Amino acid sequence: MMDMLDAIGHGFSCIEIEWGRKGSLWLPSAFHKRPARAFTMPQNDLDSIRLNRGGVGGEELWDMGWIVHKHKSKSGPVAQSGLFRVLVWTYLFKNLSARDWAQFLNLYGLPFRIGKYDASMTDRERLNLLRGIRMLAREGGGIIPSNAEISLVSPSAGQSAPFLDMVSWCEKVQSKVILGGTLTSQADGKSSTNALGNVHNEIRHDLLVGDAWMSAETLTQQLLWPVLAINGRFNPERAPYLEFDARESVDLERLMTVVSTAQQAGFDITADWVSEKSGIPLPQEGQTIPETAGPPAGW
């Protein structure tokens, strides 16, 4: 699953299946994730993924030998549908700002050392002045020619704000692209209300459901069905499918209160609906059902 979900960033993920026999069955014995650079797309079909060998158009992948998961985070050809294409600029700007910030912190609080030389000074005297400035920065003292001068200029305060603002902006954009919002990953102390947090969490859950649905479809069509087909047990009319349970947990006490109130008001609520909402499975035939606890003694 982790290798498949690499498609969220790149737009696609290709995993080679190694088959082996287990008794009388052919089953996958290993899965090998191949890097995105090992594949290419022919110019006449940018949604077709092929091995980057065997000619200009590449070599086609053999059937039932690969799991090719395509994750369309945005419209367009498969190579342009990944999140990395959107995040590349924020990644670049954030790292450049962090590097500049580190260089700034290396000199933060230290006065700038500026050497002044007379126009009549020779190149050797100027070099001695430069060496004196460097010795002053490293050792706190040095020697310079008598006709040279060193001035110490204190930097103005608050110069780190632009770097912090750029890093913060890049992280907020990345959170919006990946999670659909910012309040599920960080709090700024201004807009961090419970209502907004719940809205952002719902968006995150919608993205989770979408990712789960696309992953289940790929595993069903490119792993589950091939296993059945190779072993001669595939029936198109009764083909099984994989589905992830992406339901979020609910407050059971609150749900039971709502159900009880609705029943008292005359609503007919089915056990199937309560089971679906609560996640509590309905009992199967032959299973032991615990006895209902009676009221406390003295009631």
UniProtKB/TrEMBL annotation:
Pfam family, one: Portal_Mu
Domain of life: Bacteria
Region (Disordered) location: 279-299
InterPro entries from the UniProt entry: Portal_Mu
Protein name from the UniProt record: Mu-like prophage FluMu protein gp29
Organism annotation: Enterobacter cancerogenus
